[in-house]
Amino acid sequence: MEKHSTRAKKRLAVGLLAAALSLCGAFRGNNLYSQNSSALSFSWADAEKLEVLPKDDIFFTNNEAQYILKIPKALPSDVQTELPNFPEGVTFNSSKKSDYITKEGNAGTEVDLWFTFRQTGTFTFSPLVIYVKGRRYTIKFKPVEVYENPRTILPRLIVVFDNGETITPDAKKTPTITLESDKAARFTIYLQYALQAQQFAWNIPKDSLFTEIKRYTEKNAPRKSSDFTTEKVPISYFEWTPFTTGTTSLPEIKMMVTAYSGRSVYLTTPECIVTIVPQKKDAQAKNVGEQDSVYAYAWTENTGDEKTKKAKTSSPLDCAQIARLRSLERRALLALPKIRVQRIEAERAVGIKTSENEANYCLFFILLGANVLLIVAAILFDIFKKRFEAAVLGVAALGMLFLSILAANAVLKRYGVIVGGEISPIPEESAITKSAVNGGSRVQIKEETQDWYYIVYNENGGWIKKENLAVIK
Questions:
Q1: Is the pLDDT of residue 112 over 90?
Q2: Cβ of 410: how many Cβ atoms within 10 Å?
């Protein structure tokens, strides 16, 4: 009986001791939290330092966006919020309160707010009203920039001239700029809202000199789709010298780029009205010699050998003979190899660097006829239920059709051989700037007037009198 009584007393003592320890621990923990959060109560001075901050630097339309407010020295139970009226295009989704403790041991309350933006632009909200232990405070929202969702945003090209004039494709009104004739204007092409430029080309503007000065290859490195940036990436730096007055547009620059959505997008220079006015007289005299030398350089082929330059002198008869051989090369079939050899020897005899071979009409018609035969054969095999053979012939017909299109594109282009004369930036005898060119050069004919051809050679364009060009027929 005494043993039983002793055991009961021990159990009671252990239970009381455990209860006392639990109470001490709870009191100590509550005292520590109280010291961390309320050693100094939340005040007006604390409220003035606060700002409702966006979680990210930029937000996107139709994506959930989060704002965060951290209130020090306050428990979640002591904090209430009163939301302001939000501007049009903003939807409030939800909010949450939670406690936090910093690495230094300071405690407080974090308020999280989630929104959805349906429009782009810079958004500034009215202040957020909070109550801490019944006292009212107003906290400012930090303004945020909202951009089109990367999954739907379209890349764009931007033109920035050295004088600061900027041409963008999203201008509400077609922008206008004024340039002086015979005076170089330089500008940079920028790419925005794209991962990378895949292909890059341009059409040579007529009646002008157009040169790429620099290509920013290192700036166009591939990026991940998650690395969205609003930065304008420089692609290329150009110099453009128009020679005629009047109204025109920016040189057409074409680019195939990869959008943030992953698809390929075709871009061109933005629309702009360019007014070319006569150059001031005091500057015109200074620039005539310079423009003349630049235009001549653009049409001069660098041989690197003075002897070769002298050997390039050819008579009009030599050039006419080369044009005749090239015309035969276009129409010959069985004699094609022999004529091509004769043409190459004729060019070498006068020191002309051999250019591309001529596209052949006969080859085009052979490809076209073979394509028709393959299609007919595929249809016949399909009629006789020979599906495999029909499928094979159908694929072959598609391949032959592709080759036929390439051949058609080649034979439809017009070319000629320069007999002599000069290249002018404008189709007028009175043009101040001209360039003498070596006879025998093969050039592409892009346009013609009554007395002039507009030709392209070595990525440069200019006008030549019809009497100075032998057309390859």
A1: yes
A2: 16
Half-sphere exposure of residue 417: CA atoms within 13 angstroms, side-chain side: 28
Q: Write out the two tokens for 278.
A: 């006569």
Neighbours of 363 (CB within 10 A): 17
- Token pair for 182: 């015979």
| Helices 361-383 and 387-412, axial angle in degrees (round to 10) | 160
Angle formed by the axes of helices 316-331 and 361-383, to 10°?
10
Contact between residue 170 and residue 153 where contact means Cβ atoms under 8 Å apart: no
* Contact call for residues 119 and 146 (beta carbons, < 8 A): yes
pLDDT tens profile 151-177: 788 889 999 999 999 999 988 888 999
Distance of alpha carbon 200 from the chain centroid: 9
Convert the pLDDT of each residue in 48-75 to its tens digit: 889 999 998 888 888 889 999 999 988 8
Q: How far is CA 55 from CA 58, 66, 178, 193, 252, in A?
A: 9, 6, 45, 22, 42
Lookup result for tokens 């499928």: 391
Q: How far is CA 195 from CA 44, 64, 220, 223, in A?
A: 47, 23, 8, 5
Question: What distances in angstroms separate CA 290 from CA 134, 243, 426, 438, one per listed residue?
Answer: 79, 13, 17, 21
Length of the chain: 473
Give every CB contact of residue 338 below 8 A, 6+ residues apart in sequence.
none
Residue 281 CA to residue 241 CA, distance in Å, equals: 17
